[in-house]
Amino acid sequence: MFKLKSAFHDFKGRWSDPLDDYVDRLNCAVTVTLFSAFALILSTKLYFFSPVSCIFPAEHTGLKHWVAYYTSRCFVEGTYRMQHSNVSSSVYMTGGPTGIDIDNGKMSFYMWSPYVLFVFAFLFTLPKLFRELCFYFQPLDYEAVVVEVKKVDGFVVQEEYNNYLKNSVEDIMAMCNYNNTSKAFGIIASIGYVVQKWLYVLNIWIQFYILKELVGDGKMSWGWTMTTEGLFYNLQSKNFPALSYCRVDMKLNDLQEFDFPCVLPINLLNEKIYIFVWFWLLLLFAVTMCSAICASVICFIPSVRQHVIERLMMLPSDHSLDGRCMKFFVNEILFADGLLMLLFVKEYTGSIVVNNLSRELWKKTVESEDNFPMLRAIEHQKACYDYLMNKEGNISIDLTYPPPPSCIPSSVPSEASVQKEKVKERIVYAIPA
Fold first, then answer.
1. How far apart are CA 169 and CA 367, in angstroms?
2. What is the pTM of this model?
3. Which residues are CB-neighbours of 419 under 8 A, at least 6 positions away?
4. Which of 29, 44, 347, 351 would staple 14 via disulfide (CB 3.0–4.6 Å)?
């Protein structure tokens, strides 16, 4: 009972994993479920109903055990394809010796068709296992972060909302061991995430190749060809023939080989399912390829990463925040894994929550004593000029740039302390509300 409950939770988790986007769910949830269902349907037809029906000689038709024996034998040994013109009419109706070479027409794929789909379904679970392995060795529990941040939607009072969000950011920084590392986040999780996407692409391509060799007669476009030729009228399809022949040894006067016409109802089902699988893989390949390319560009190109974070923070295109301050925040604090965390939050909670979370991370970055020297060292001539021209402490002229270290008087500690707090406020509030 407990195992069934655990299996149900594992299955349900594939559809509701907060770290999966819709492309991941198409691969690891929808496709796995579809292929497993198809495999169960084919297995039921194969082992509980009659996958093969053959016509045997008249002298054996009255003996049910002989008919059952030959039918089972044809199922186990496999049947073969043969054109009507190669077999006399007596073979169709009563069976008879033919002496025809059947090596090239032998087929037994229908016995393995459910297992192929089970293997395909299993292969779609491997990329996610690789991603989870990469996440396992990271200090930050991404799933816990996403689930906890989601709870902020339950707060009605603004003060409670802000306090919970602030505490969430502090927990995130604590998990990242923020004060003891040069970067709050790293890149390993992003590598695992992007590699997962490309593993899905590789997996789909491998399955295309397997289908081409097993049922496609060596052609990648076999699914489209079979569809255009007609799904319901071609009983002698080269890929999934519904009419075939079975050769068995029978001792009448002496030992002779007989060929009997057979019908394969299971191939009618195989044909429809495998053509659907071909089109599904084609659609999945296109969608997953686009997703893999986008994930690679967003995670590993700094300029794109900065643009995405600015969008998540809902900054206008003409914001007054110094670009170098933002680069420090993007490349030295968030880096690839921080952006990945924000994308997970956006996927699971929405744009408003991720906007507030990213701004809270920005405030935490500016207020940190470890980051202040670096932020203050982002020099700009205009900031220095404005500061030197306003020595009384009026630094409200330009809210874009913090004053360089050389502009801050070091002889008066109290004034420097006040100046530090004003600089922090200036950088924080450079982000428009």
1. 13
2. 0.76
3. 393, 395, 403, 408
4. 29
